[in-house]
Amino acid sequence: MLRVGQVMSRLSVCLYSYHTIGDALTLMKEKQVNGLPLLSDQGHLLGMVTKEQVFEKGLEQYAAENKAADYLTTRFLPLKEESVLDDVWDLPFDIYPVFNSQEEITGVVTKYSLGQAYFQNVQLRSQELEAVFDSAHNGILAINRQGIITSLNPAAERPTRSTKEEAIGRFLSDVIIPTGLLEVVRSGIPEFGAKFQVGRRLYISNRTPIIKDGEVIGAVGVFQDVSEMEKVLQELQSVKQLNEELRTTVASSYDGIIICDNQGEILRCNPAVGRILEVSWEELLGRPFKDLVDKGVFQKNIIYLVKKQDGLVSILESSSAEHSLVITGNPVYDEEGKMAKIVINIRDMSEIIFLREALEESKQLSKKYQAEIAQMRSHQETSADIRSGSVIMKNVLELASRVSQVDSPVVLVGEQGVGKEEIAKLIHSQSKRREEPFYKLNCGSFPYQLLEIEIFGQGNALGNGKGKAGLLELANNGSVYLEDIGKMPLNLQGRLLRVLKDKMLQISGGKETVSVDTRILAGTNRPLIEFVEKGLFREDLYFSLNVVPIKVPALRERKEDLIPLVLFYLEQNNKRHEMDKVISPDAVQLLLDYPWLGNVREMENVIERLVVTARGKIISAKEVDLVLYEKEKSPLRAVTVTGVIPLKQAMDDLEQQLVTLAMEQHGTTVKAAEALGVNQSTVVRKLQKLKELNVGIEGGSIRKK
Ligand SMILES: Nc1ncnc2c1ncn2[C@@H]1O[C@H](COP(=O)(O)OP(=O)(O)OP(=O)(O)O)[C@@H](O)[C@H]1O
Hints:
alpha+beta, Rossmann fold, elongated, CBS domain, 5 domains, 26 strands, five-stranded antiparallel β-sheet, ATP-binding, Beta-Lactamase, ATP binding, binds adenosine-5'-triphosphate, 43% helix, coiled coil, CBS-domain
């Protein structure tokens, strides 16, 4: 800011009352000024003596010896050295005395020199502003009240796609598409942060009205190219998203994941680590990996191995919880090639083995179901071939013949293998439905959904042509024999009741109902009322179904049937295997004395085995004895101790034998676990241990004491 002190003429002299005008003009010439201050004898400023004043008085009155005081003018204004030029340049006097801050007169200044200095200063400032305006990184564009562009800097040329020369003087909307500036001129309200796009570039603009004397005379817009920033922002956004995805992936990984820095400090780990190592995974964060080794969670320090190897390392370990772990350490290098982090992956192999076993078993089960369904759906052989010599059985058969003449439901109660299904077939084959289909299905051997579809069918609710008729529909006008009816799920029992009562069948998967006339025959090993009492069977269904209960006695309760059945199966197997075997009387006696807990089915199997395995033509008592009592005599049925050995060794040995035997007898880990009374995972682990010791199923035979 320019001040008077910088522009004035400094004076070392002033005029006093004794000075003549000649002295004054000489001094003015000497000091190159147009006027001088005249002071009183006491040093007070009395006024100014100027050349102009001399001319004004007229030269005819001029005489050099005239007193300078005669030319004094008191029309003046004293100025201060520190006065700002902007404030004083247009004051009305031609010459001013100038004082310093101590109120001493220090010089004079004319209006002309003040004005000249002021305009030079304004010019300089304007040049500076122009330089700033032109070099500004942001685009600046100003319009007047009429919307005509008045200023535009080079940075504004890009978004307007025109040069300064082309743009100035044109209407705003002829030069640039966003015309928000016009709105600012109209409303007088500034607008900040408005975004607009020109081509591929994105700009943010701040628009401000230009106000003079309370009136809007134009508007200025400053806009910044934020395309790069936007790009960086988008990148940041996608990095954030990626980071989130990575975090979720690590967190939801079934394998345990631990991330350490190059010093082995745990930076991150996931919940699976907690599950596999049986530790609190959150507490591991920030701790050295080595702690886990020191505590025996790991046997080897994989961090050390990865650093030593300077590459990926995989090791196999058994954790404290008897899990087999595959631990993989993977180094991560920074841009300079230094190892920055180590990612450790922990895979629990026992779980994988367990899952593979479970999958294998469900595949087997599924195959079994498929086979059973295929067999069940094929048209059933209904000619019953029942042998009997007992009165009790005769009565049963007579009752069966009688009920075959009516359409009532029948419940056949009896132990496994007593011949319930045979009697069901007999009822059907003697009924008026004999020419119609007969189907059977075991309610206890299918999972719920499969059973539902097999009995009630599947509707075409999806309209994809995949509907399937159930047995109740397939056997329309015929009969269905539902084995193990007590095991039918409660949900399905209600629908079966509708079939019995209203002859209406509700197809699964839809609201569809069809009317059916299917006779229901049911079988159960335990009296149905027991299921009702336990809440497993609907009482209303029980009463509707149990119209004619037929109890089929166990084979041991009808000894008279034994000989006819033995002879029947002997003949049947001789024929089947093209043999001519007979049975010795003492062998028959053994068969008569046997309890036949598996009833007729057991006898059927025993006789076939005797026919096939007997060495001579006559089946001897010894051979019968071997077949009937073989299992009881097996040394494997009990543990026999023959000597003293360390208890731990004995227990390990026994455990190996039991697991191997259970697998041999039951085939799957699920069933073996059931027989051993342990969890399936325990069996899987023990088998894994046996495989490692090479004494498992594949590894060796069962060792006996
Ligand atoms: N009196 C009989 N005469 C000839 N064979 C019979 C007789 N009773 C049963 N069987 C035969 O015994 C086997 C078992 O019979 P069935 O399947 O009818 O028994 P079940 O009581 O229905 O058994 P489960 O309840 O276990 O299904 C079948 O092969 C059947 O042919």
